[in-house]
Amino acid sequence: MKYNPDIPHRRSIRLRDYDYAPAGAYFMTVCAQGRETLFGEVGEGEMFLNDGERMVQAAWQTLPDHYPGLEIDCHVVMPNHFHGIIRIVGAGPRACPGVEVRANKGIAIITP
């Protein structure tokens, strides 16, 4: 997606040069591609669920099964994005055996 100066852009709240790998609680946001409303709709002050939202809920619940040392906390699914808090509670440097993870300016680079 090309940068469009006519669309408002948020400033990143990530701390420059901060190592996000150590144990701790982390707030995360995941947006749907193109910010499409894939997870439901809001109407009359209420979120109306759909299959996309239920899929996100199911995936969230199984994260600790796939990533040892990860705990999930509260979360909320919005029509085009998802917020959640994860806790890293002692995962080793190789939480996914057979996969190399390197940090590059706060971004995980995963190579098989």
Shape: flat
Rounded radius of gyration (Å) = 16 Å
Low-confidence stretches: 103-107
Q: Mean of the pLDDT scores?
A: 79
Instruction: Please identify the structural class as seen in this structure.
Output: mainly beta
Strand fraction equals 35-45%
Through-space gap between termini: 26 Å
- Strands in their spatial order, largest beta sheet: 1-5-4
Order of helices and strands: EEEHEEEE
Number of helices: 1
Structure report:
With 112 residues, the protein is mainly β. It has one domain. Helix content is 14%, strand content 38%. The protein is built from one helix and seven strands; from the N terminus they run E-E-E-H-E-E-E-E. The protein has one helix spanning 51-66; strands at residues 24-31, 40-43, 46-49, 70-77, 81-88, 100-104, 107-111. The strands form three sheets. It has a three-stranded antiparallel sheet with strand order 1-5-4, covered by helices on one side. A hairpin with a 2-residue loop joins strand 6 and strand 7. It is flat, with a radius of gyration of 16 Å. Residues 103-107 have low confidence and may be disordered.
For this entry, give a set of tags.
single chain, 112 residues, mainly beta, 7 strands, flat
Q: How is this structure best summarized?
A:
With 112 residues, the protein is mainly β. Helix content is 14%, strand content 38%.
